[in-house]
């Protein structure tokens, strides 16, 4: 196997850089981010690339074209993880691209474009709540107010960047508008579609958009043994009704998914009626209008529940990203690379978010999905792919990169 065995070994090695052993958790700007970055920079340099951290902690490698005026094509994915993650989400997209460049380098082959491979510092948004910060800086949609966001320990993004050795105020210099002909990304599917149809890879058609909302419910604490049931202002009971509303609304509107993944209760004592609850909502859809309508429906339902239960509620949307269609010509190019391997071409949408989704603002974008084992489970330690599929996906990406005429493509698109 040309690539697969080594890729599995690398994914295993990177899985050791965790804040939470034996679980895998690697958040933005943690010491483990630096360790993973150093590991990736080493791989990139040995593959014939120049590589370094940028001002926001993204890991950026360049495989220069012979002609310095040649276009730039970008690929990669994210180095950060969710809590208790699998080893392939994000990392595979970086490793597979480095494996392609290593192969080109060993054959002494340059590309007619400069290939940038980026390990984005933050995609999951676990530490500061805002997702896709690395890729948004490159796509020109970084918001400076994010620098004041704090993690659960009260450390602001500005402080964390400075401690990491980055430069918080240098984010505008990361923008790539007008300088990238195309962005392509390979990623584990994180679902069961390819597994169920028995195919190792597939072409992504579009990436679902998402909104994040923080909800604060305020009731009145009281003695668990003395306050009669009918006269309580229990913040947790009210929040529970809200959580179930989110589930019901998304179940009954085809194309929506909604998740409450974080919930905190104060004072959090067994014999005290809950006074305050804070929870988050993550709602997604391929249809932006359906998602906006869901956010509005949550707001009005929460107000009704709060009034009826005599608690106060504030639902504050704090982050949103629109659905992103993949470029038709790049999809076709991926389809040809898959077909060249004798594999039937399957197209499928992505319900998960990816760094790729911010790039349509500045250049055409496309994605290759790789089959996910274990019933498609992801954001979970059981997430897996086989070495054979890693091998096939890398060979398909390499075929794509070697057959991509970036100059001709750029001349026919409107890369901003
Ligand atoms: C990232 O994996 C996301 O879709 O939240
Ligand atoms: Mn993820
Ligand atoms: Mn991912």
Q: How is this structure best described in words?
A:
The protein has 416 residues and is α/β, with parallel strands linked by helices. Helix content is 33%, strand content 21%. It is built from 11 helices and 14 strands. It has helices at residues 4-14, 31-46, 91-106, 133-138, 157-164, 193-197, 235-251, 288-309, 328-339, 387-403, 406-412; strands at residues 50-53, 59-63, 72-78, 114-120, 182-188, 201-207, 209-218, 256-259, 263-266, 276-285, 312-321, 324-325, 347-350, 365-370. The strands form 2 sheets. Strands 1, 2, 3, 4, 5, 6, 12, 13 and 14 form a 9-stranded mixed sheet that branches. The radius of gyration is 23 Å and the shape is elongated. Glyoxylic acid binds at residues 124, 352-353.
Question: How do the helices and strands line up, and which of them pair or pack?
Answer:
Elements: H1 4-14, H2 31-46, E1 50-53, E2 59-63, E3 72-78, H3 91-106, E4 114-120, H4 133-138, H5 157-164, E5 182-188, H6 193-197, E6 201-207, E7 209-218, H7 235-251, E8 256-259, E9 263-266, E10 276-285, H8 288-309, E11 312-321, E12 324-325, H9 328-339, E13 347-350, E14 365-370, H10 387-403, H11 406-412
Parallel strand pairs: 3-4, 3-5, 5-14, 6-13
Antiparallel strand pairs: 1-2, 2-4, 6-12, 6-14, 7-10, 7-11, 8-10, 9-10
Helix pairs in contact: 1-3, 1-10, 2-3, 3-10, 7-8, 9-10
The structure holds glyoxylic acid and manganese (II) ion (2 copies).
């Amino acid at each position: 196997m040309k690539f697969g065995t080594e890729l599995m070994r690398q994914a295993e090695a990177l899985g050791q850089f965790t804040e939470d052993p034996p679980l895998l958790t690697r958040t933005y700007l943690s010491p483990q981010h630096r360790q993973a970055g150093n590991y990736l920079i080493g791989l990139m340099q040995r593959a014939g690339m120049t590589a370094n951290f940028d001002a926001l902690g993204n890991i950026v490698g360049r495989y220069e074209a012979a002609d310095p005026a040649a276009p730039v094509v970008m690929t990669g994915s994210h180095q950060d993880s969710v809590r208790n993650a699998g080893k392939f989400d994000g990392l595979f997209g970086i490793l597979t691209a480095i494996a392609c460049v290593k192969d080109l380098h060993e054959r002494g082959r340059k590309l007619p474009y400069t290939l940038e491979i980026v390990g984005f510092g933050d995609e999951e948004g676990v530490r500061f709540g805002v997702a896709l910060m690395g890729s948004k800086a490159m796509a020109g949609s970084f918001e400076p107010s994010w620098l004041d966001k704090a993690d659960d320990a009260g450390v602001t993004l500005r402080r964390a960047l400075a401690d990491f050795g980055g430069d918080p105020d240098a984010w505008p210099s990361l923008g790539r508008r007008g300088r990238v002909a195309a962005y392509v990304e390979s990623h584990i599917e994180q679902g069961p579609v390819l597994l169920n149809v028995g195919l190792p890879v597939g072409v992504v058609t579009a990436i679902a958009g998402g909104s994040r909302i923080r909800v604060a419910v305020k009731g009145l604490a009281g003695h668990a043994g003395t306050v009669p049931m009918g006269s309580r202002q229990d913040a947790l009971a009210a929040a529970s009704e809200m959580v179930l509303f989110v589930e019901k609304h998304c179940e009954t509107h085809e194309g929506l998914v909604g998740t409450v993944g974080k919930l905190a209760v104060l004072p959090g004592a067994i014999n005290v009626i809950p006074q305050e609850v804070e929870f988050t909502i993550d709602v997604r859809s391929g249809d932006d209008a359906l998602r906006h309508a869901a956010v509005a429906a949550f707001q009005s339902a929460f107000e009704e529940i709060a009034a009826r239960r005599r608690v106060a509620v504030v639902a504050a949307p704090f982050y949103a990203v629109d659905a992103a269609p993949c470029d038709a010509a790049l999809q076709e190019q991926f389809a040809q690379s898959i077909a060249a391997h004798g594999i039937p071409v399957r197209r499928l949408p992505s319900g998960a978010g990816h760094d790729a989704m911010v790039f349509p603002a500045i250049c055409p974008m496309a994605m290759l999905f790789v089959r996910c084992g274990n019933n498609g489970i992801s954001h979970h330690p059981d997430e897996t792919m086989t070495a054979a599929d890693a091998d096939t996906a890398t060979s398909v990406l390499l075929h794509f990169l070697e057959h991509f005429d970036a100059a001709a493509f750029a001349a026919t698109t409107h890369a901003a």
